[in-house]
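Q: Mind making up any chain with structure tokens?
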Amino acid sequence: MNGKDTPLAPAPAAPATPAPAAPAPEPRPNPLAHLPLPFQTADYSLKGYHLDATVQPGQVVLAAQLMDREGFSLDTITGVDWLAQGQMEVVYDYFHPGRGFRAVVRARIPRENPEIPTLSQVFPGANWHERETHDFFGIRFLGHPDLSPFLLPEDADYHPLRKDFTA
């Protein structure tokens, strides 16, 4: 208060100056460059993974064995329907719990005969992921011990995540 019992007006706020942008993080070196897989580095902040490799369908088991040997764990398996290209893509997400790396291995297969080897003998937890991918995309995992429906009804003869699926 001043001497006349009237409140003082608050001082005007200083104009906000934007904080300087944080420098972009240095790209991490490729810790899997020594493997016979074509890993490329990726920007984690944009992609959600650090490394990405596309392999032939016959190489997915070798890739899983190598990832296991390097200390990576299998996070998930899913599919992508490339309808216009007549292909399906199987996407394997791996993570390294001690080093904080995430890696993706991909393989494309023909849409009219979507088959790829199972990883369940390397990563037993792949069993459920492969069953789910089979349910939703119709991808058959050769050598899988039980591709019975996992989430769909037992009599389901459809694959709802295929782009040509109609209800």
Summary: The chain has three helices and seven strands. The longest strand covers residues 73-82.
